[in-house]
Amino acid sequence: LREREDASRRLGVATDGAGRLRGSGGRVLVVDDNDRQAARIAEELIREHRPAIETDAAAGLAASKTPIDLMIVNVAAAEFDGLRLIAQVRSAETTRHLPILAVVDPADRPRLVKALELGVNDILTKPVDPEELAARARTQVRRKRYTDFLREKLDYSLEMAVTDALTGLHNRRYMAGQLQAFVSRAGLGGEPVSVLVMDIDHFKAVNDGFGHDAGDEVLREFAVRLATNVRAVDLPCRLGGEEFVVVMPGTDMEDARRIAERIRRDVGSTPFRVMGGREHLTVTISIGVAACSGPGDTPEALLKRADEGVYEAKAAGRDRVIA
Ligand code: GH3
Ligand code: MG
Ligand code: MG
Ligand code: MG
User: Fold this and answer.
1) Which part of the chain is the GGDEF domain (predicted)?
2) What share of the chain is helix, strand, coil (3-state, %, to 5)?
3) Which of 8, 96, 143, 183 is most deeply packed, by most CB within 10 A?
4) Shortest-distance Cα residue to atom 11 of ligand 1
5) What is the CA radius of gyration of the chain?
6) Residue located nearest, by CA, to atom 30 of ligand 1
């Protein structure tokens, strides 16, 4: 339950004490060429919802693409093709899941069946009973709220699966998948791909001297500098701990070495402010560079070569680039 409450808060969804979504009021679009019937329906809805009326199908279709929670369509009128409107709403990518209530004439079985076949969520029979309208509309709006919530939660989970929680950079899993694709392309004669593997020097001393939180601040600030130092097509990632990788498509060894040198200089030349600006720490990094420009290479081998560069840089005194 706590988890559900936390997720709701993160997503800005109001819930009651039991973690249920609060409030059933929704944006309801009434599409009906009979404007008196439309007005009657809207008047009933206004106690609980925010209704809007459209009296022709084209305007109704346009309004269905705005943020609404429910559409009520009159399919009983002869001149007005409510069924066609429903078919259009159901086949458009952005409105496929929009709840629809069809207002039908109970004597007109063919249209009622057609509406159900088109996937309307519920039926209202003429003459529309106010209590039935209120109950059916409330159910649909609540369901819409809940599925929106689940959809957002799913998007959030999918994003978290490829994101490093501390820095917001891509994580190792995402990097591995992308690198595989770039290496395959380079192997088939496409553009080269380079990787920089970087490790912060004596990072343990930051934690030991200023605390783990200060260490985290350094990692976050380092991530910002990394992300602002590379192109939009490059992938800066945190492998874990104080180890980072940048994958650079379309970049050969010579360019990669130049970029690595620039990052190394930028990091080392401007102290990191931590603990609310009370401390300024000079941070240096060791970088290994590797490039792939032909067949026979693998992501693992590429990363291993760059990693060996890091070890070599550490052995040679740190704060340097080995390509
Ligand atoms: P070297 O120059 O050889 O790389 O020395 P180092 O101290 O950076 O290397 P070492 O691998 O010995 O230490 C890395 C440290 O990073 C140890 C670990 O506690 C710390 N660390 C790993 N992950 C995190 C994190 O998420 N936050 C913080 N604050 N520290 C972390
Ligand atoms: Mg390390
Ligand atoms: Mg280490
Ligand atoms: Mg280190």
Assistant:
1) 191-323
2) 50, 20, 30
3) 183
4) 204
5) 29
6) 215
β-pairing, 235-240 vs 243-249, is antiparallel
CA–CA distance, 122 with 311 (Å, rounded to integer): 66
Cross-strand pairs, 100: 71
Q: Is 152 a catalytic residue?
A: no
* Residue 5 CA to ligand 4 centre (angstroms): 38
Instruction: Please write the tens of the pLDDT for every residue from 233-259.
Output: 999 999 999 999 999 999 999 999 999
- At what angle are helices 299-315 and 172-187 packed, to 10 degrees? 110
Residue 12 Rama label (left phi>0; alpha psi -120 to 50; beta): left
pLDDT digit string (tens) for 116-159? 999 999 999 999 999 999 999 999 999 999 999 999 999 999 99
Burial of 109 (0-12, 13-18, 19+ CB in 10 A): exposed
Closest ligand 1 atom, CA of 318? 2
Those residues with Cβ within 8 angstroms of residue 251's Cβ, 6 or more apart along the chain or in another chain:
192, 193, 194, 234, 259, 291
Name the token pair of 85. 């409107």
Q: Which helix (H) or strand (E) holds 9?
A: helix 2-11
Structure pTM? 0.72
* H helix or E strand, kind and range, residue 216: helix 212-229
ipTM field: 0.96
Burial letters 278-290, b for 16+ CB under 10 A, else e: eeebebebbbbbb
